[in-house]
Amino acid sequence: MNRRIVVLSAGLSTPSSTRLLADRLAAAATAALHTRGEQSSIEIVELREHARDLADHLVTGFPNAALRPVLESVAAADAVVAVSPIFSASYSGLFKTFVDVLDRDALTGTPVLIAATGGTARHSLALEHAMRPLFAHLRAVVVPTAVFAAPEDWGATEVGTSLEGRVERAAGELADAVAARPPAAHTDEFDDVPDFTALLNS
After folding, report:
1. Torsion angle, CA of 55/120/7/73, rounded to 10 degrees?
2. pLDDT tens digits for 94-104?
């Protein structure tokens, strides 16, 4: 069974360190699942591409054609990797807007790996006082290791404390959580539509 992992990147620039961290986490999660005998597919969602769609949803109460499949993918995922830049000691407004339009039960029981980027290591505390409580509120299963990347982390090589080591540890925890669960139910919106040929022959 193929496990579906949705990676949410809330970076605002192109390229961005947020997307770079998201890509590393996605690759590490794929590798960790493979070592546990699980196949996986990755869907990366750049939230900046849906900024206007999210604003439309806030004022209309409905997702448009571009945003709807993204929300459905998150709800149907076997796991989610959520990465945000840190602004004013918390996740970005873009990231929070996306969470605000999610169905309240979309992430119930879903394994989630949280990560963030910021200009200084002091911002790493936002993972524990802001992002972890946010996903706990959504009843997601947040893995123990949260990954923060400050500018100096990209070149750090100290064993056990390097960014790569934290990425691998968090990815392993996510893979364990996914492997321990039955695959998410991936339903098709047309499953309940009667077969047209059968109707004609009835």
Report:
1. -30
2. 999 999 999 99
